[in-house]
Every structure is written in structure tokens, then in C-alpha cells.
């Protein structure tokens, strides 16, 4: 068994909080290396993300890593967040450029994730293990695959310890990206992000937004099931288990599951892999 980690988003409603609370004991039973909590666009990180991080640490004894985005924020705001997370006892961060919050017309004082990594290192030294993002199928806003790879290299050279990939369904894309990174002399661990499939509509929407490619055969199979949720879930379990097995066999250093604050789909994959009790 290789290390695993889980990603959550910060719940904002009582219903969302209840959903996460039901999932947490089941996911914690898998002994994740850590869990991460996404950044809420539009300034909500100043409330929801730290609140969720504190809850996961204090009430569930989980090593929780907050996402920090530089988009739209000032150096002083980011400095305050770093101080807050350090006081909570956090030792790991996920540093991202992030998306422009809706309605915001100007960029923040820090423009790129590589600059954010450098800023964190300047402010906190080696206190934090810094994760960054990477895109095996190329960031949707990148000028070219080469430009995207060099942007990743800049983050690594600025002081990132490891990377988590955007999700994908082509293991070959991940392995090619790792080979390209190694060819540039980058030796940091590159952990594949894995998205369980529970809803074809949700998956299509997320993938269109983030640039993750859904292979034609997967897209057509999902469309053929229509509103048959159980068939979609069963097919998704087969696809994501096979992908996880291929990544493990190919030498992935760990797996990072995008849980969407649910436990069933992720636990289903881990059970198929023989990891669940």
C-alpha cells in the first residue's frame, strides 16, 4: 500500500457540514497521510477554509493542509493566513495561483504560484511542506505544453516539496508528464490526483471547467447510462479502480483522491484495491 490523501472542500451550509461529518470517520479509518481543504474563491478562505482546517485537526485528529491562493489577495492577507495556520499547528500547505474571484477586476499582489511558493519560503522558511499543482493534460490557460511544464518547473525551483496533479483518466498522460519533469532535472514527488466517478453530469461540468480530458469511450459509456445512477457508479468504480492500479504499478509515489466530501466512491475503490479493512 502506498500513501493516500484526501481532498475536501469547506462546507458552508448545515447540510454540507452533515455530509462531511458522516464521511470523515469512514475516510479517517483508511489512515490517510493527510487531508487537504480547498480555497474558497471570493474571500471565503478567510472564514471557511481555516474553520474547516481547525475542525479537522481538533475534532478528528487529521493532519490537514489548507489550500492557499494568491489570486486577488495582498501579501499582508497571505502573511496573516500563514501565521494563522502556523499557530494551528499546520505543517503542510497546498500553494496555488487559483482562479480570479467572481466580480474582481484586479489581480492580487502576487501573480503566480511560483511567486507564492517563494513568498511562503521567505516568510516561514522550511516550516511548511509545500504542495503545488501540476497538469498532465496541460493547464487550460497555458500558452503551450512547454510553457506549462516550465511554469511547473518554476514552482519546483522556488521551493515546492511535492506536487499533486489535476485529475485525469489517461495514465499515459501522467507518466509522460513525470518523464518530462525528470528530463528537466525535477526530482520532487508528483502525486496523481484521482477523481471518483459518481455523476456523469457533475464530471462533465468539472472537466470542462478545469481542462481534464474525458476519453471518448468513457464519455460515451456515461452518456449511454442516462439517468441510471447505479450503472454510472458501477462503471465509475471499474474505471477509477483500473486507473489506480495502473498508477500504482507504474510507480506513483502516492494517490490523492478528490472525495467531494463523500466517502462511498473513494472507499469503493480502496476496497477493490484491497486496502480497506
Describe, in plain words, how this protein is organized in 3D.
There is one protein chain. The chain has 10 helices and 9 strands. It is α/β, with parallel strands linked by helices and 277 residues long. The chain has one domain: TIM Barrel (Alpha-Beta Barrel), CATH 3.20.20. The protein has a 9-stranded parallel beta sheet with strand order 7-6-5-4-3-2-1-9-8. Strand 6, helix 6 and strand 7 form a beta-alpha-beta unit. The model has no long low-confidence stretch (mean pLDDT 92).
Spatial separation of the terminal alpha carbons: 13 Å
Q: Low-confidence segments, ≥5 residues, pLDDT <50?
A: none
Main sheet specs? 9 strands, parallel
Secondary structure category: alpha/beta
Could you say how many structural domains there are in total? Answer: 1
List keywords for this structure.
nine-stranded parallel β-sheet, 277 residues, single chain, TIM Barrel, 9 strands, alpha/beta
Short note summarizing the structure:
By secondary structure, the protein is α/β, with parallel strands linked by helices.
How do the helices and strands line up, and which of them pair or pack?
Elements: E1 4-8, H1 14-28, E2 34-37, H2 48-60, E3 64-69, H3 75-88, E4 92-96, H4 113-124, E5 129-134, H5 145-158, E6 162-165, H6 171-183, E7 190-191, E8 193-194, H7 200-210, H8 216-224, H9 229-249, E9 255-258, H10 264-272
Parallel strand pairs: 1-2, 1-9, 2-3, 3-4, 4-5, 5-6, 6-7, 8-9
